Hints:
The complex is a heterodimer. Chain A is built from no helices and 11 strands. Chain A is mainly β. By secondary structure, chain B is mainly β. In chain B, strands 2, 5, 6, 10, 11 and 12 form a 6-stranded mixed sheet that branches. Classes of the chains: A mainly beta, B mainly beta. Chain A binds chain B through residues 31, 33, 35, 40-45, 48, 50, 55-56, 58, 89, 91, 93, 103-105, 107-113, 115, and chain B through 4, 31-33, 35, 37, 42-47, 50, 52-54, 91, 93, 95, 97, 99-107.
Amino acid sequence: DTGVSQDPRHKITKRGQNVTFRCDPISEHNRLYWYRQTLGQGPEFLTYFQNEAQLEKSRLLSDRFSAERPKGSFSTLEIQRTEQGDSAMYLCASSSIIPGQGARVYEQYFGPGTRLTVT
Amino acid sequence: AQKITQTQPGMFVQEKEAVTLDCTYDTSDQSYGLFWYKQPSSGEMIFLIYQGSYDEQNATEGRYSLNFQKARKSANLVISASQLGDSAMYFCAMRERSQGNLIFGKGTKLSVKP
């Protein structure tokens, strides 16, 4: 093992094309998160899943973005009709959450990211 | 309003010395967690240390310790005996119990000088 893996690591695409990224979380983790990081900034939250359910979406996630986690394991993030402003590092993270654990807030483990360049 | 503030864009420290990276936060939740991550030039975010809002003791993990001052809403990271490999971006983050996601600061770039 295996930490969080992401594929591809780099993607160059032309404006207007669609792209899809994949994230494989740590196997026993039931929560999966997507973040976006632009140069010189900290990661910004996009969306997260608990098992296969998408529990929260950021306002950053425009209609052109869609994420799925169909069987509660790996997840995909698709960007349709890419724009130059979509150029960023897309980070995936996973964590475990155990109902009834009270205030314990579990750390998230990040993958290596997918760097998207839109030309 | 910014929820996580890191006021030091860049810091220099001499090898083997200790360094403190500042972080202040803003939340109305009583239950929350504070995290520090390291991001080397390779880009991967590496979890360093966690402090829960109800933890009475400051968290420590090896050379990392978190100076948690709840009343001041600060969660500074202290790295002791700096090493050249500590040169990286460091991000402070918070997760409120009512939210699932982490909220990150803008980061501090630490450079360790030989």
